[in-house]
Design brief:
Blueprint (H helix, E strand, L loop, with lengths): L2 H13 L4 E12 L2 E12 L3 E6 L5 H8 L7 E6 L2 E2 L5 H7 L1 E4 L11 H10 L6 H11 L1 H4 L11 H13 L5 E5 L7 H17 L2 E5 L3 H7 L2 E6 L2 E7 H5 L2 H8 L1
Parallel strand pairs: 3-8, 3-9, 6-7, 7-8
Antiparallel strand pairs: 1-2, 1-4, 4-5, 9-10
Helix pairs in contact: 4-7
């Protein structure tokens, strides 16, 4: 076991008895007459990094949209930090401490890097903004050199960094990231995954949707696998690494 594996195993052990921050109980989401999520249940403990895996069309993005209030569940319940947010508005959920980095990153390309970051602080006013900016710049030093650059001119990796940094400036308790590695080089994906693992130890809990199962298994504490809108497999990363054929059966 290398140093990274040892550190991650220690983090997983430390969060195993932490309080549940997010509890999803048998939610159903439908579009028209078609259920895109069916009886989905999962939980995320404070301080964890939890990954949602699944093939295209499995319902991963729909799940994050349901949790952020963009697609309210038709049945079931979502509890966050002890509060029922099942049918709360996206604004209320964000104010409660949930931020959502969408698939495709969601930066505003016509605004500069600094202007995008400023948007992340609007929800909590401007007091102390220099300290908070310094914190995200320490995590993403490349952004400090790009403050006047239009976000649309950044590379894919830099845009993903910007989107995560903006979300962190909202002071979330739970950071949700949809398809972190989409369109990124493996080296950049590895750096961002490692950074999220670092962030959750001293900052927000992290829930990611990820297409790269091997990277997720390296860094996540626990895994949920979706197929056709249902949770079909769950376990710790250590457990699933020991039986790679099980994951392959669902992910191909």
């Amino acid at each position: 076991m290398n140093q990274t594996d040892t550190t991650l195993s220690a983090a997983a052990a430390a969060t195993a008895t932490a309080p549940i921050l997010l509890d999803v109980a048998s939610i159903r989401v439908a579009r028209g007459e078609v259920d895109t999520l069916r009886d989905v249940s999962l939980s995320v403990r404070s301080g964890e990094l939890v990954a949602i895996l699944g093939a295209n069309g499995a319902g991963k993005t729909t799940l994050l949209r349901a949790l952020s209030g963009l697609l309210p569940p038709h049945a079931g319940a979502v509890t966050f930090n002890g509060m029922d947010i099942t049918r709360a508005t996206p604004h209320h959920i964000a104010r409660s401490g949930v931020t959502h980095v969408p698939e495709g990153r969601g930066v505003l390309p016509e605004l500069t890097v600094r202007e995008n970051l400023d948007l992340g602080m609007v929800m909590h006013g401007w007091r102390g903004r220099s300290d908070e900016l310094d914190q995200v710049y320490s995590l993403f030093p490349i952004l400090k050199t790009r403050t006047a650059t239009m976000a649309g001119m950044l590379s894919g990796g830099e845009q993903q960094m910007l989107s995560i940094a903006r979300s962190l400036l909202c002071r979330p308790k739970l950071l949700m990231v949809d398809e972190l590695s989409l369109g990124l080089a493996p080296k950049i994906t590895l750096e961002l995954m490692s950074l999220l693992a670092q962030i959750r130890r001293s900052g927000p809990t992290v829930l990611i949707v990820e297409q790269n199962a091997q990277q997720a298994l390296k860094f996540a504490d626990r895994i949920y696998v979706l197929a056709q809108g249902c949770v079909v497999l769950t376990g710790t990363s250590d457990e699933l690494r020991q039986d790679p054929g099980l994951l392959a059966a669902y992910l191909g």
